[in-house]
């Protein structure tokens, strides 16, 4: 099932990459960028708190979909923001460096975390503690998860 979760994200990313640019042209770059960032963050939160493999696979598919819709929007914003060819070249170089290192580091980290199953139950711990602390800071009288 780990392969299904990983493959679902890759399949969604590859299948929706071309559609992302067209949607951003139709609805505007800035609103679609914000909506896609929120969607990607929500899918990441669902995946980080998933207790069942099916939910994890669905969250990974949503991450891939939002990532595919996000990439062309970010690139189009870079190309329209930097009009000078020298600045545009620097901006695209920085984008490529960050995207490449993020992809490589992410794959390595996911490989390590999924290889050693002892680490998997601890992944939701920091997220849960942060959520509880946020609830206490807001004055919530409802108990947080895990209490």
Describe the protein.
The chain has helices at residues 2-27, 29-48, 53-81, 85-115, 124-137. It has 147 residues and is mainly α. It has 2 domains: 1-81; 84-140. Helix 1 packs antiparallel against helix 2 and helix 2 packs antiparallel against helix 3. The longest helix has 31 residues, at 85-115. The protein is globular.
In short:
This protein has helices at residues 2-27, 29-48, 53-81, 85-115, 124-137. The protein is mostly helical and 147 residues long. The longest helix has 31 residues, at 85-115.
Search tags:
mainly alpha; about 0% strand; disordered C terminus; globular; about 150 residues
* Total individual domains: 2
**Strands, total number:** 0
- Please state the structural category: mainly alpha
Question: In one word, what is the shape?
Answer: globular
Summarize the SSE layout with pairings.
Blueprint: H1 2-27, H2 29-48, H3 53-81, H4 85-115, H5 124-137
Helix pairs in contact: 1-2, 1-3, 2-3
């Amino acid at each position: 099932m780990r392969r299904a979760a990983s493959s679902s994200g890759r399949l969604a990313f590859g299948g929706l990459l071309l559609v992302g640019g067209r949607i951003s042209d139709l609805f505007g770059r800035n609103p679609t960028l914000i909506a896609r960032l929120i969607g990607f963050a929500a899918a990441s939160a669902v995946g980080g708190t998933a207790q069942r493999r099916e939910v994890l696979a669905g969250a990974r598919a949503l991450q891939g979909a939002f990532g595919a819709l996000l990439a062309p929007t970010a690139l189009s914003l870079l190309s329209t923001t930097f009009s000078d060819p020298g600045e545009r070249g620097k901006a695209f170089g920085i984008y490529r460096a960050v995207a490449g290192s993020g992809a490589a580091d992410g794959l390595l980290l996911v490989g390590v975390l999924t290889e050693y199953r002892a680490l998997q139950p601890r992944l939701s711990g920091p997220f849960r503690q942060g959520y509880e602390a946020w609830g206490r800071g807001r004055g919530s009288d409802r108990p947080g998860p895990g209490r």
